[in-house]
Known about the structure:
The chain is α/β, with parallel strands linked by helices. It is 47% helix and 13% strand. It has three domains: 3-137, Response regulator (Rossmann fold, 3-Layer(aba) Sandwich); 143-315, Rossmann fold; 318-397, Orthogonal Bundle (Helicase, Ruva Protein, domain 3). The chain has helices at residues 15-27, 38-47, 64-74, 89-97, 110-138, 151-163, 180-190, 208-216, 233-236, 252-264, 290-295, 301-307, 324-338, 348-356, 362-376, 389-397, 409-424, 428-435, 439-448, and strands at 7-11, 31-35, 52-56, 79-84, 102-105, 170-173, 198-202, 241-245, 266-268, 275-277, 281-286, 310-313, 345-346, 381-382. The chain has a five-stranded parallel beta sheet, with helices on both faces. The longest helix has 29 residues, at 110-138. It is flat. The two termini are 48 Å apart.
Amino acid sequence: MEKTNIKILVVDDEQGLCAGLQEALRREGYVVDAATSAGDALKLLGDKLYNLVISDMKMPGSTGLDLMAEVRSRARDTLIILMTAYGTVENAVEAMKGGAYDYLSKPIDVRRLRALVEKALQFQAVVAENSELRLRLRSGTDPGLLIGESAVLRAVVTLVNEVSRSDVTVLIEGESGTGKEIVARSVHAQSQRRDRPFVSVNCAALPETLLEAELFGHAKGAFTGAVANKPGRFQLADGGTLFLDEIGDLSPKGQGDLLRVLEDHAFRMVGGAELIRVDVRVIAATNKNLHEEVRNGRFREDLLYRLQIVPIQMPPLRDRPEDIPLLVELFLDQFSAKHKRRRKRLSSDAIQLFLRFPWPGNVRQLRNLAERLVITCRESVVELVHLPEFLRDYDRTTVTFSVRPGTPLAEVEKLLIQQTLAHVTPNRDAAALSLGISRRTLQYKLKQYRLLDGDAGSE
């Protein structure tokens, strides 16, 4: 990381020493702030996220150890170096047990300080790289990436666990960006085929002229330029799983060819005479309503029933807004590690806007926005002002209501609950989260205000 992106906070009640250390580190290219008390330091820590805090251990009021405990509770990745004029073993042990990265004795040797700062930042970079590596190893293979506590997502996870124990064909349906490929990979990762290949094909990206050769391979001499046999995706996936994404865009001929393979578990290469048998589990996905496609004559009914032995419906993000805070935290951590940036969190106002927004691009849109915020927001807390215009504009175009001064609080509360369920989300778990109350409290309020007649929203 560039030194100009490194933020350091120096804390010491000796103003001259504090200013001297600040200047010495600024000459190294770092961004350095200074505070002469733990209270002033905490104010700065509330506004910025620092890579490193260098604090005196003995200060009037709160000590360096007190400050360190507060720093660690707010920003677990921030490293702390403590300074003291009492360079005893006991102090050093106490500081290290409290979570200090290291310890400096006064008077401060500036060369030692520079070397220790560089060493601490190198350690921090390694930790970030390891976090990124762990996330990369998990991606695409860990069913835990189906993050959320909503009932609809828990139902999906339960079905994925059940389906993974068998070899049945699965059809995953859902809007674009809901995580259909993650579900497919999760099924494969938990199945008996986990050590065999997972091969993915985007049916919408292949023209009909290339689809047959892509799926089944071609024999030498099958067409101009075919100088050798080339295996297709079915052969590459033998023993494992073949994921057919956007199956609804498969051409009529491709649908017929796929149906035969699913029924016979055998095929011939393009231009080949030999019958090739494979052991492949097929998982398909689509963002189209295939029953409607069948009614309109664009998809084979027999193929639909062959694919839809077990259907899995991925819910759109707007139907599980209570999962948004968990997803945002996951993505912010992931991209902070990837781009070697300090961890960020959303302010309560930003979270509330995220809960209200309908997310037409679903989880993919949320994930992309989290990466954008990691890159563009320089502060540790993402406020409304840091959010893109399309999000901030959403509140300006949504329904609002007003109340007359002097209106009884009970009437205001009743109206707020009605409007939230009608215009923010009909889901009571999500509505309770948006209102800042528990589900049980919301249920009590609905009963109290006689809003349980079906007009206020549904489960």
